[in-house]
Amino acid sequence: LSLSQFPLGRRLPCDIYWHGVSFHDNDIFSGQVNKFPGMTEMVRKITLSRAVRTMQDLFPLEYNFYPRSWILPEEFSLFVDQVRMMKDSDPAWKPTFIVKPDGGCQGDGIYLIKDPSDIRLTGSVQSRPAVVQEYICKPLLVDKLKFDIRLYVLLKSLEPLEIYIAKDGLSRFCTEPYQEPTLKNLHQVFMHLTNYSLNIHSGNFIHSDSVSTGSKRTFSSILCRLSSRGADVKKLWSDIISLVIKTIIALTPELKVYYQSDIPVGKPGPTCFQILGFDILLMKNLKPMLLEVNANPSMRIEHEQELSPGVFGNVPSPVDEEVKVAVIRDTLRLVDPQKKKRKEGHLAGQHMVSYKNKVNVKSNYFMCYRCQALEHISEADEELLDTGQADRPGYDSAGSPEADLPSLCLKQVFPKYAKQFNYLRLVDRVAALFIRFLGVKGTTKLGPTGFRTFIRNCKLSNSSFSMASVDILYIDITRRWNSMGIEHKESGMCLQAFVEAFFCLAQKKYKSLPLHEQVALLIDFCEYHLAALDEKRLVCGRG
Ligand code: ADP
């Protein structure tokens, strides 16, 4: 594999495009790109919270791994009212909240509050939308310190959905011993925020050459410790896998809308894959909670250090190398176009050999290094994460370029566990209906005519639900969504608004059932009528 940089764009087509920040290049007609269109937008704090909330409305128990969140400024009064109600019903509840500016990163602009009235409504929140979230007061501590986990996840394909999780991740530590939040310690960022970019500035930050000590460690080293204390590490892994799959299921509907807009079906275009960084906090009872998803996780394997007074330089960071080199190496192996060709019976070419040599040297070294930390969890891990023969070394016939590479650190979890999670993919099916009625390719919003056609073709209008009421529903919901301060380059109904309208229709049609059943029934109803219509058209066409 030859790698070249094209800071100003490139002329010849490539097999794999590795973009630094986000997907946006209309001149790619083939190959694979390491970013999905719309991913950066989807994982912003507000969009992620909305997407998870839609799933929480349908499946509250399955989605209780995300802290209760409100969007500011638009839900400020809802936040105040709900907190007051919860306090009234449980006077012992003494919550803390964390306010996070939308689109912020590295802990930027984040602060803790004890009461909704503490929100600085002046200026910043009004001009800078944010998410306010219930603060997890009882995190799991190691060495008396709060820490979070960064896990790397490869979304290899959206359709069909393919997800891989890296067997090891990073644990990033605070640098002040943790205490539950009080008015006195709320502002102590080194105690409450685990961001590396913040804690690095604390005098207590420890750079360590060992992966199991210091302020940044491997997640596997934490698991080793937990396991030696008798914790059920197997269950923890399966909870983490389930959190990752459910989060991606919440993101896929809107991603598909972006995808068809940027890469319309039938037109030449690339396929996409993406490495995502999942930030997860473990609660004291070992329940993993999702903090956020990063579309552009840092892949740096060096850190800055003061080499001599006043002189800074980059030095290798063993813990970062340990985890990240394997993620990149395996991603390239999984998306390797040569591998696909070999599977299809072609011969491996020279390219592949040089790819192997290039990536192998470092990773082999670090895989050996990894093995010790992973040894005793490997059994549980393999059982949970094993993807079968396809991921094993030796899958490629002897003498193939991959035969002497270490086994994959990225383990397939979807479709492997699809059966357990497919029932959650209702909004995906709603999105498929939405996309069908978008009409002109390349748009992301549904016009009033498209919405009417949807109602008509799915036979949703009747004597008690006239076409006039359909228009009112369209206008009401669309207007509200378009006034929420979300960017709206196009006018019309966005997917989220369509989903809301769809839920309304489902509730109207199938009264007194749980929402997810109402929605599932309405989807079946629509799909049935559309299939009948397609059949009719096919017959007419033939005729
Ligand atoms: P950023 O993108 O700015 O890093 P995060 O959502 O990751 O924002 O939050 C920054 C840090 O704040 C996290 O790494 C974590 O330590 C802490 N944090 C965030 N949300 C919560 C929460 N709900 N409960 C407890 N700690 C949290």
Question: Outline of this structure?
Answer:
One of its GO terms (molecular function) is ATP binding. The chain is an alpha+beta fold and 543 residues long.
- Helix amount: 40-55%
Biggest sheet features? 8 strands, antiparallel
**For the record, what CATH class of the domain at 138-249 and 267-342 and 407-420 applies?**
Alpha Beta
Number of helical regions? 18
CATH architecture of the domain at 138-249 and 267-342 and 407-420: 2-Layer Sandwich
Which structural class matches the secondary elements?
A: alpha+beta
Query: Cα distance, first to last residue?
Result: 52 Å
Can you give a write-up of this model?
This protein has 18 helices and 17 strands. It has helices at 39-42, 45-58, 76-89, 124-127, 189-192, 196-199, 219-228, 233-262, 318-335, 337-343, 350-374, 378-385, 418-421, 426-437, 448-457, 467-482, 495-509, 515-542, and strands at 16-17, 32-33, 69-72, 97-101, 111-113, 130-134, 141-142, 145-157, 162-166, 170-173, 216-218, 271-272, 274-282, 288-294, 302-308, 311-316, 410-414. The model is unreliable at 346-398 (pLDDT under 50). Bound molecules: adenosine-5'-diphosphate.
